[in-house]
Amino acid sequence: MHNDIDGEAFEAKTMYPGFLKTAETADNQIAFLSLTYAMKTELKHKFFFEQALGDINTNKLNSLPSKYFVCPTCGNTYANTAPKHCDFSLTERDKFIIFQ
């Protein structure tokens, strides 16, 4: 689990910023926007991994969310409830993929 957390942190803090510089240099706004969504989403994934590890370490698995909502446009993930639209891509909630 620690490697997963480290991987998410690396992606959000190192990998995607490098990709963003490349997209900006290439003046590719679509790639820049897509990579921005991905970078923000990786930060949220890191939080979810940290939460799961904390629950495992304290043996409180019942406190993990029972439902996740994933935006199909950008991968933004919400636990238990979802807003009317994605905070990143503005995709409407009714299009989200639900995992229980």
Describe this structure in words.
The chain folds into two domains: 1-61; 65-100, Rubrerythrin, domain 2 (Single Sheet). The chain is 54% helix and 9% strand. It has helices at 2-25, 29-58, and strands spanning 68-70, 77-79, 97-99. It has a three-stranded antiparallel β-sheet. Strand 1 (68-70) and strand 2 form a beta hairpin. The radius of gyration is 15 Å and the shape is flat.
Concise description?
Helix content is 54%, strand content 9%. The protein is mainly alpha-helical and 100 residues long.
State the main characteristics:
three-stranded antiparallel beta sheet, 2 helices, single chain, Rubrerythrin, domain 2, 3 strands, 2 domains, 9% strand, mainly alpha, 100 residues
Tell me the structural class.
mainly alpha
- Rounded to an integer, what's the Rg over CA atoms? 15 Å
> What is the count of β-strands?
3
Going across the major beta sheet, what is the strand order?
A: 2-1-3
Please state the overall shape, judged from the principal axes of the Cα atoms: flat
Taking all residues together, what is the mean pLDDT? 86
- Helix coverage percent: 40-55%
Unreliable segments of 5+ consecutive residues: none
Number of helices: 2
Sheet with the most strands, sense and barrel status = 3 strands, antiparallel
Sketch the topology as an H/E string, one letter per element: HHEEE
Number of structural units classed as domains: 2
- N→C terminal distance: 21 Å
Task: Determine the strand fraction and express it as a percent band.
Answer: 5-15%
